[in-house]
């Protein structure tokens, strides 16, 4: 975690600092989750599509990797969108329009 990003936590009321810290932590968790998703998708698609590693990818392997990653992220978006919608319904809130649900 980059400590310079906490510079905005030095000023403001205790409540403002608390909210800024919560936002920073949420942002860092989201970044870590995104990195894990990309790593997992890459590993799974590589294992599926690259049968004999070499110095370059064949056209077939490139196509397979592209399609695999696209499907993986599509599935992730569907599942996470349904999860966000369900949590919002349980909380009695609405889902932001940009969630595409």
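Sequence proposed for the structure above (101 residues):
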């Amino acid at each position: 975690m980059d400590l310079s990003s906490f510079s905005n936590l030095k000023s403001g009321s205790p409540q403002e600092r608390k909210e800024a810290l919560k936002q920073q932590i949420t942002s860092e968790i989201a970044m870590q989750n995104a990195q894990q998703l990309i790593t997992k998708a890459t590993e799974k698609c590589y294992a599926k599509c690259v049968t004999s590693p070499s110095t370059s990818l064949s056209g077939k392997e490139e196509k397979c990797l592209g399609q695999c990653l696209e499907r993986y992220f599509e599935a992730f978006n569907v599942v996470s969108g349904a999860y966000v919608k369900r949590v919002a319904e349980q909380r009695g809130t609405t889902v932001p329009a940009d969630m595409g649900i």
